[in-house]
Amino acid sequence: MTTQTGHTQAIAASRVIGTSVYNTEGKSIGSIEDVMLDKTSNGIMFAVIGFGGFLGIAEKYHAIPWASLDYDEDKGGYVVPFSKEQLKAAPAHSINELAGADGERARDESYRYYKVTPYWH
Q: In three state form, how does the secondary structure of 41-91 look?
């Protein structure tokens, strides 16, 4: 099965980490720092997007529902369907907070905030 834009579903995590992410205005918002995996359902809980910092200082990490990222070959990165304002107001976490409570707190908060249908229901 393919994504909305015809890309294949499978990709190695090593190819995803470090990839740039853009907002709906086409501006770079950061890059994928990591992906959080749901070990019990074999799914991806969310992508960890880092932005707002400089050399790792004061950087904020956001849980973005994986299904919200769409790869754009022309940009060489992922585009999320969210405005700059939505992303600025989004819940931000430390890396430890993203993994706390098995990642479920950050996952649930992210899916609610971005109004994405949960994959686990």
A: CCEEEEEEEEECCECCECCEEEEECHHHCEEECCCCEEECCCCHHHHHHCC
